[in-house]
Amino acid sequence: MQETEKSKFINSVLGPIDINTLGFTLSHEHVLTASAGLGISYPKLIDKNDLISRATKEFIKLKSSGIDSIIDVTTMDLGRDVEILREVSINSQVNIICATGTWRDIPRSFWYLQPSQIAELYIDEINKGIDQTQIKAGIIKVANDSEGITKEGEIILKSASITCKETGVPISTHSYARDKVGLDQIRIFNSENIDMNKVYIGHSNDSTDVDYLEDIIQNGAWLGLDRLPGRNPDWKKRADVTFQLINRGLEDKIMLGHDWNYKSLISNLSEQERQSTNPEGFLFIKNKFIPLLQSMGVSEKSIRKIMIHNPRNFFS
Questions:
Q1: Distance of alpha carbon 70 from alpha carbon 77, whole angstroms
Q2: Which CATH number do you get for residue 160?
Q3: Contact in structure between 96 and 88 (CB atoms under 8 Å)
Q4: Which of 10, 41, 95, 156 is 20 to 30 A off residue 311, Cα-Cα?
Q5: How many domains does the structure of the chain reveal?
Q6: Which one, of 131, 159, 157, 161, lies nearest residue 13 by Cα?
Q7: Ramachandran region of residue 255, left (φ > 0), alpha (ψ -120 to 50) or beta?
Q8: Pairing of strands 15-18, 9-12
Q9: What is the DSSP track for 149-191?
Q10: What is the C-alpha separation between 191 and 95, in angstroms, rounded?
Q11: What is the pTM of this model?
Q12: CA 29 centroid distance within chain
């Protein structure tokens, strides 16, 4: 993309869209999570037509409830299927931004490559398309969990950094907030001279350490409060943390999401058990979390900033 286009348009699964059409945006979600190649090698495990049909019905509900866009941060190693995302987006009119990058299941083949070699692959998924389609990525996903930043994890962070600098496409991370891994990610990104305004540190609301969360923002990154409802801490405590951050004047750098999966083949819970943990699904923020924030005194202006203006500014 040319520089003028970067500031106005982003890749969606249906092609470039104006950032002003993003509207109410969920910052970290998944339509399907599985394992790399599972749907191709073992199609009995994923009935694509049935999944598209059922997910479309769900996304039509989202659109009618005022949700305009989701950022689907499913990568190749997490079972990404961009054709499913395209069909759901076409049928529901919900914008879906899909991801390049690598989650926690880093392919062994990547362990021995240079970051620049992996970055070439990511860049192609942004500029040319994913899996021999013309569907292009609009976000770069990386992940570091309780193990911290391993040797292989650092290779991926550096690959994402090269990709971000080359394309202008921002980075979304999976982090382990309880051990402040977000700050470790920021350290690597700073060493690679990344514009921190293009970095989103995800799963940050797994921590109730508001000072740590403010540190992420003070380092220039965006704060992803994107595990909702969540378990430990529970969603009401997560709302309290969000309220504290807003009271500190940090609402300009906060985004909300669920990290919800419409269908997951990597969960240790049955589908029924998983649904029982969050009957609202992708509508939990709309139906439960925002009303609680409003009852605590958060203004409609702040809600609109977090859900509409901040995602747009992140991508611009």
A1: 20
A2: 3.20.20.140
A3: yes
A4: 156
A5: 1
A6: 131
A7: beta
A8: antiparallel
A9: S-HHHHHHHHHHHHHHHHH---EEEE--GGGTHHHHHHHHHHH
A10: 34
A11: 0.96
A12: 6
Cβ neighbour number for residue 64 with a 10 Å cutoff: 10
Q: Which long-range contacts (CB under 8 A, 24 or more apart) does 227-234 make?
A: 227/203, 227/258, 227/259, 228/256, 228/257, 228/258, 228/259, 228/284, 228/285, 228/289, 229/258, 229/277, 229/278, 229/284, 229/288, 229/289, 230/205, 230/206, 231/277, 233/206, 233/208
Region of 249 please: left (phi>0), alpha (psi -120 to 50) or beta: left
| Cα–Cα distance measured from residue 314 to residue 169, given in angstroms and rounded to the nearest whole number | 10
Parallel/antiparallel/unpaired status of strands 99-101 and 95-97: unpaired
Instruction: Decide: 141 and 101 in contact? Cβ < 8 Å.
Output: yes
Domain of residue 23, residue span: 3-315
Instruction: Give residue 3's Cα distance to chain centre.
Output: 24
